[in-house]
Amino acid sequence: MFDFIEGEVLLVDKPLKWTSFDVVKKIRNQHKAIKVGHAGTLDPLATGLLIICTGKKTKQIEHYQGLTKEYTGRILLGKTTPTLDLEMPFDSEHDISHLTKEDILEVVKSFTGRQLQVPPVFSAIKIDGKRLYKKARKGKEIDIEIKPREIEIHAFEITDMSLPEISFRVVCSKGTYIRSLARDVGEKLGVGACLSALRRTKIGDFSVENAWQITDLIEKIKENKQIANTQQK
């Protein structure tokens, strides 16, 4: 039985095109009187592990946010978009025929370790109390300097190279934007790049392999509510 007031830590496999808040809202609609929050945003075009905390366990959100993350995905070389992924149309294209696999592997290797990273304009970062993406989506010019943040890439490996796309696995610190990593790889190669797929596979010791599909979780919550109501009668 779930105890949402005392608190639950739920692992959810976020579906494609859902926002992280969509998942929170879906669960909150089942128990409107309790707190529900997530421990780390996933972009709408990303899938994978989302940690949801309820009730008293929402006090642990900051702890889970600070854990190391693991992602798998694909980077499309030679094309860029304003959002750094495929949410918006391409705004530039460059020839990549001169690139060798050795060039790409060398550049990827150079991103391992501590470094400064500039977050995307389309991100949930707050500047002057407002989310950047809200201003960007309205087509307004971002006239505020987005300061780089220190991150750490613990591992960055290429798992497949079928140009113009490269598949990868990344293990990184809190605050790392994989869209920014894709952008930076493209810039260092001199051809531009964007993220074409992303899946979060681990947060600390938690794995997406143990996560609920959202439809199954909601059905389980409904079953628990029915059992609880029957016991109260």
Automatic annotation (TrEMBL):
One Pfam entry name: TruB_C_2
Domain tRNA pseudouridylate synthase B C-terminal: 179-222
GO molecular function terms noted in the UniProt entry: RNA binding; tRNA pseudouridine(55) synthase activity
Reaction catalysis annotation: uridine(55) in tRNA = pseudouridine(55) in tRNA
GO biological process terms, semicolon-separated: mRNA pseudouridine synthesis; tRNA pseudouridine synthesis
InterPro entries: PsdUridine_synth_cat_dom_sf (IPR020103), PsdUridine_synth_N (IPR002501), tRNA_psdUridine_synth_TruB (IPR014780), TruB_C (IPR032819)
Keywords for the protein's UniProt record, in alphabetical order: Isomerase, tRNA processing
Keyword flag Protease: no
Task performed by this protein: Responsible for synthesis of pseudouridine from uracil-55 in the psi GC loop of transfer RNAs.
Family of the protein in this entry: Belongs to the pseudouridine synthase TruB family. Type 1 subfamily.
Alphabetized SUPFAM superfamilies for the sequence: Pseudouridine synthase
Active-site residues annotated for this sequence: D43 (nucleophile)
Entry's EC annotation: 5.4.99.25
Ranges where the Pseudouridine synthase II N-terminal domain occurs: 30-178
Protein name: tRNA pseudouridine synthase B
